[in-house]
Amino acid sequence: MSTPAPLDPAVALWSAELAERTGRPLLVLLHGYGADERDLFGLVPFLPPEFVVTAVRAPLSPPFPAPGYSWYPIEGLDGRNPSSVTDAATALIAWLDEHAPDAPTGLLGFSQGGAVALQALRLEPERFSFAVNLSGYATPGALPRDPELAQVRPPVFWGRGARDDVIPDFLVEHTTQWLPEHAELSGRVYQGLTHSVSEAELEDVRVFLQKQLETLEADDAPVGEPEQ
């Protein structure tokens, strides 16, 4: 069994100082292949301000001359190996255990980051409140807690472009079948969009996140006294 490469806490970006994070829900941003923690952090002004947002850096470096970082290899015979996606999700969970163990947590990932977000849900179905999967996919193959995930059915938003030619068709087809069986799915296919994020998609994500905030607030509301 491989040892997942750890995430570097020194490079994580946060939307709030440590003293301002207590009692607030956390949204973790997971960038795509060849990017870094700064890539999605620019979305913070467009996201509901009630969230504390953190953007973490993937632990691997793509082969030269590709820039940035990756969560798992996509090239060679081992490209998109399910165990590599699981390793990345395991490393993410270990990082959260150390740096945000108690906050209600949602995940938002693009491409590779979306795949890691869904894999983390599968590893710990009750740990995460929801996930946003942008231009990503569900990794094929069974995991031990998949039946439990199908019972919990966390909310998942899946957005992708109709002209996205980066994610292979068989992964899109697998995700189309797998997600409704394991999550409370909402999402949209954006006409004309390639492997990227549009303003319309970002607005849909904002609405989805606002709904998740309302659910979290309702769950935290004190139970009223019984009527006399």
UniProtKB/TrEMBL annotation:
Keywords: Hydrolase
Phospholipase/carboxylesterase/thioesterase domain sequence ranges: 22-212
Chain ranges passing through the membrane: none
Top-level lineage group: Bacteria
InterPro entries, per database record: AB_hydrolase_fold, LYPA1-2/EST-like, PLipase/COase/thioEstase
Gene Ontology MF term list: hydrolase activity
Keyword Protease tagged: no
PANTHER family per the UniProt record, alphabetical: LYSOPHOSPHOLIPASE-LIKE PROTEIN 1, LYSOPHOSPHOLIPASE-RELATED
Similarity comment: family membership: Belongs to the AB hydrolase superfamily. AB hydrolase 2 family.
Protein name (record): Phospholipase/carboxylesterase
